[in-house]
Amino acid sequence: MAKQIKHLLRRVRRLGAAPSAALAGIAAAVLAAVLVPDRTVALAVVAAVVVLEFGLVAVMLARLLAALKEASVAPAPAAEAPKARQRTGAVLAPLPARKLRPLKRWTARLNQGFSATALPVMYQYADNEKGTYAFRLAMLDAIVSWRDRVRRERREPVRRHFDIVLVSNMNLLGGTTASNAEEVKAYRDAGLSVGLLHQPVFEWNVGREINPKIAELVGGDVVLLGKGDEVTCDLMIVRFPPSLSRLMDDRPEITPARTVLLINQTPFEAYGPDGVGRHFSWDVATVRDNLKSWVGDSTWYAIGPSVREALEAHHGAEMAGVDLADGYWYGSLDPDRWRRDGPREADGTIRIGRHSRDHALKWQTIAEDLRATYPDAEDVEIHVLGGTTAPERVLGRLPGNWTGHPFGSVAPEEFLHGLDVAVYFTAEDYVEAFGRSPMEAMAAGLPCVMPPRFEPLFGDGGVYCEPEEVEAVVRALMEPGRYREQSERSLATVREHFSHEALLRRVAALGVRVPDLAATASEGGTR
To answer: Where does the sequence pass through the membrane (predicted)?
Structure first.
């Protein structure tokens, strides 16, 4: 308690003579009310004092704001950091949601690499006299805390050469993170050094931490890069174009011998029959110019045929001048980790399943097609990993033979090993950039049934049909000889085109010196 009192007294003293003047004014008002016999005069004196008191309170608050702003601009000794947090902690009264949103949004951007962009906006909020004092002080407190953190976490800059630097938004939950993690494992296990740079999307959930699947890979020759680092590399790989819509202010210096951009999402998530895009994701010209201003020339790789088709059909003029590679940068995995020993033991049922994000675009939008694709038959079970809210909205209610597992509740390979057949259909006008879910199913040795638009990507590794044909196709696949043949084709396709070995051949052809791998090796086809 004594420490708290001393702390409060120090805060009062920092406000100068204003508190003493306020107390003197109160005393004068009391004396006037008691000693002055003329009540009119006494009331006039009290009224004057009240006006002065309001003025003094305004002066005190203004000085407190100025002191906090000074602290947010001028570095304070490290020992003072706890005092700064204690000083402002009492001021941060609960804010309404409309105030919390900009506070959280700009604080996240400040802390995640966009400081030059965020600071002027946050100071503008703090200087706005129309804003509440609590909100203005909260903005300044966020700046003070950021500067304290920057001082505490200061480290020796990384200055070295890497075989590969991977740049991406590494706080995502779905296929982009899975692809990044698999590639890092492949490079690390091949003896390559890897620098990682988290480049979040400015307009998205910037405050989310790096996905644990990526964070757990950092160590040894896998290094997380940040502001102040100066590195060179044989190959810089940028995955996820929306990340380049606005470059971080606080990024390291990277000098690559060669740069590639992996287009794993089309500029719009869907395109209607008239070719008009829906659900904007990124702008070709902005991404092209930002990448060139940062590291110079680059080669762009579509991660599958559907991406190339969308770019050529809907963005041909914008892609003029872009070096778009002839081949594809497929996703990859370790087939030996995913493959199961054999089919599930027969029990009289057919277990159909799929795993993906619970997003409307990941499911068919026509109820009749969705029911046909995942049939409600007595001997059929439907198992879904990733959530079932989207299909339930389409169907109204889920049939009784459905079993849902929340996203992340079961390891994908464990889930797949408990299925007989994977069936993967998405929204009719959705451009599935690659199809990591069916690739993983095939790597487990499952026959995978898909719409015909996936055939250019997976070839004879998949089975293709229309929704109304799914049940008949699945039942035919359950014949042991046919099941074994399709399973073997699935595994062979994955090993040839989508394995870690195929990925290493690809980067070797781009100038990365991969131990025990000829740099001139082809990547095993261009399907």
So the answer is: 42-62
